[in-house]
Amino acid sequence: MNLIFLGPPGSGKGTQAERISKLLGIAHLSTGDMLRESVARKTSLGQKAQEYMETGELVPDDLILGMIEEKLCSGGWEHGFILDGFPRTIRQAEALKKMIAKNEKEIDKAILLSVSDAEVMRRLSGRFYCPTCKIGYNYPMRLPRQKEHCDFDNTKLVRRPDDEITVVRNRLEVYKRETAPLIDFYRKELILSEIETDDGPDKVTEQLLKEIGKAKKSDSYKDRCPN
Ligand code: ADP
To answer: What is the value of pTM for the model shown?
Structure first.
């Protein structure tokens, strides 16, 4: 099962991809996490990507495609994958299709996690994480027991630098301009589903599993080919 989770920042792609990848035993590939790791390790990719990430702009396609190609070539996704944060432009989507076709694979489903702009602003302004164990907290939904400190290792919680309000606004604009056109791209490929994310993370996981179950029942390309 090869899945794409689409959606604006704060729609819960990362949280859900982590849960579903564990439940299905498939790989979770997050370009945001890969880039943050490259920035932390000060690799040449990380140094090039940092300024784009800090302002909420997209990292150029060529850098992202090189990173993804390397990841896919290194294997570990034979049982399937969830792509979280990729593709984010039409060019990335077209390149992805070609890359996985080389392995005689295809995307089974692209699932859009919908959320309003106001809810994105609310969720991201309350988002904190532990820099040591990477556990996430959310005010007021998931509070740490001790104010601003991680429940597991007591490290002081921090915010992602791109969760600052002006950067979030730009990330939303960039999403609408560059990434939202993928909704139509995957609708035309007949593999798009949409899930509302207002009802809390557990309900979203439940709905995702239902959608993925439906895709499994008719997973041959011919079953969904209109001709
Ligand atoms: P979000 O919460 O906005 O979905 P991510 O963690 O997926 O955040 O990405 C963080 C940042 O990393 C983005 O704002 C962008 O600068 C960069 N990035 C991640 N994935 C891509 C991609 N596929 N193409 C271009 N830039 C990307």
So the answer is: 0.89
